Amino acid sequence: MSEEPETKELIFAATKEYLRFGEFCDACRKYRYIGICHGVAGAGKTRSAREYARWDLLSPLFPEELFTLVGRRYLDDQFPHRPFATPGSPAFADVLACRTVYYTAPVAATPLRIEREVMALSATLSYVVEAAEQASRGKDDFLLAYRLPKRTELVIVDEAQRLKPAALEQLRDLYDRGHFGLVWLLQERWSHLGMHIRVDDFTDAEALAAIVRITGSNFRVIHRLLMQIERILEINHLHTVTKEVVEKARERHVLG
Length: 256
Prior knowledge:
Oligomer: single chain
Number of strands: 4
Number of domains: 2
CATH architecture of the largest domain: 3-Layer(aba) Sandwich
Helix content: 40-55%
CATH class of the largest domain: Alpha Beta
Strand content: 5-15%
């Protein structure tokens, strides 16, 4: 009789880079900023984001079919899904502080699909956190009101380079309406926007900050500004994007 190999739980090491990422997410969450985290594949962006959101702890508590605020099912006047009722469920105390949604952008998706999926994840996070709060008060059976209290304070979008401008605008619209912070995780190129500029071509955070300030994180305006930046680099035989290059691109192109 063969023995099953022992499965060892992987331990996450909080590196200096992860701590910096956590501080970055904390700021976006607290001040409701839009932030961009970039790097090559394999740099640890996804693992760091899932750890920050505690997604490996939360996602097993979600119902098999994500529900939205409309069309919720009832069973004997109770919600059919009780996150902490099964053996092996994590302690509800571990869930109380969770406020972050982790979302992986599909390879191809309409803006409507993205809106529904992000809203469903936000509603489910709110449901699970509310269940944890009720359990902490000793209430195992509870019936939530029709309107869930909103718990989502940050949405992290992984593989953002897959999204087309219309999908990015949809997420920006959700950000405007949802009053939560938003973080994009993307690889080093802007090729999905038709750009050949690499994120590594930016000399420092000042140049990126100038783009965010000038465009107000409007992705149509970002697209036009990046096109002008690329033109300036080509004409002047430059290889890096500085704050001065960004400002020059703004002067040469009417934005808005």
